[in-house]
Design brief:
single chain; Rossmann fold; 8-stranded mixed β-sheet; 12 helices; about 40% helix
Length: about 325
């Protein structure tokens, strides 16, 4: 079996893989990792539905994909800052009725100024986690045996655990990194619990950290805040970063596609992956690995229940 790592790209991961007959849903296809994920999937034969808040921007961003494989990409409007938009998109896809073999919850925001979504959720929690939570659960009936969910988490999950008591910063002071960390932890725990609930019928889920990549995700961050973010993921033991710097976008999207289409289901199901492998447990803050709270099955059940209460739906 071929092995992959930090430097692997999407095309290397999918080399020789035929995804003809497979259908995928990818959120956040107006820039960065989402566009590259769509391109790689379409290039290997998959039919892709790309979801984006700004369809005009998504049309422009995916132009080369649509020109190369016009029959393999369609777009749907999805504003993750509004559960009304999420539910409308889900209803449209359910009415269409065609299955999804891959669901990739890629879209997100990072380190935003304090704000709230249309439903009153803290912006990062609502956009990154709760909207995907509703979308994927509503579409779960369209995922047949063999299907897989990939939820994009981040090394940023190390900035903080999910706060079950005050997830929307209604009582504690707002911190953009803590809010991002909580949302990314929630993404990882969503994959853990979704996998537990659906693996008996052959549907699996994994969380991935794409790596450090400069994309529009960082549009709210200054150079100083980027340095602060990097410092937060370095332990106090003297460890230094690998020196490799930032990944390219094709390298960043590689772990998503490895977990979605290459890795064995039992290897990645319910796990957190990075650099095209399952991550090791990190007991302290570090530049790699996953903190125990982000893959804890009991924690995952609790966050699932809290998420249901927040969105007003049971699954």
């Amino acid at each position: 079996m071929r092995t992959f790592g930090w430097e692997s790209t999407t095309d290397e991961v999918l080399e020789g893989v035929d995804l003809s007959g497979k259908r995928a849903l990818v959120t956040g296809v107006s820039a960065g990792l989402g566009v590259e994920t769509v391109r790689a999937l379409a290039a290997h034969g998959a039919e892709v539905v790309g979801a984006a808040r700004d369809l005009t921007k998504a049309v422009a961003a995916t132009r080369t994909v649509r020109e190369a494989w016009p029959e393999r990409l369609s777009l749907i409007e999805l504003d993750l800052a509004s559960l009304a938009s999420v539910r409308a998109a889900a209803e449209r896809l359910l009415a269409d009725g065609r299955p999804f073999d891959l669901v990739i919850a890629n879209a997100g925001v990072m380190a935003t100024p304090f704000g709230r979504t249309a439903d009153g959720f803290e912006t990062q929690l609502g956009t990154n986690h709760l909207s995907h939570f509703v979308l994927v659960n509503r579409l779960a009936s369209l995922m047949p045996a063999g299907a897989r969910l990939v939820a994009l988490s981040s090394i940023g999950h190390q900035f903080g655990d999910f706060d079950l008591e005050d997830p929307n910063f209604e009582r504690k002071p707002y911190d953009s990194f803590a809010a991002y960390g909580a949302a990314k932890t929630a993404n990882a725990l969503f994959a853990v619990e979704f996998d537990r609930r659906h693996k008996a019928r052959g549907v699996r889920a994994a969380a991935v950290h794409p790596g450090g990549i400069i994309t529009e995700l960082a549009r709210h961050m200054t150079e100083d805040s980027i340095k602060q973010m990097m410092a937060l993921t370095r332990p106090q033991t003297g460890e230094t970063p690998s020196g490799r710097g930032f990944k390219t976008v094709p390298q960043g999207a590689a772990t998503t596609l490895w977990a979605a289409a290459m890795a064995a289901a039992d290897l990645v199901g319910g796990r957190y992956c990075e650099d095209c492998r399952v991550a090791e447990i990190a007991e302290t803050a570090t530049t790699h690995g996953v903190r125990p709270y982000a893959v804890d099955p009991e924690r995952a059940k609790a966050v699932w229940a809290r998420s249901e209460a927040l969105v007003g739906e049971r699954y």
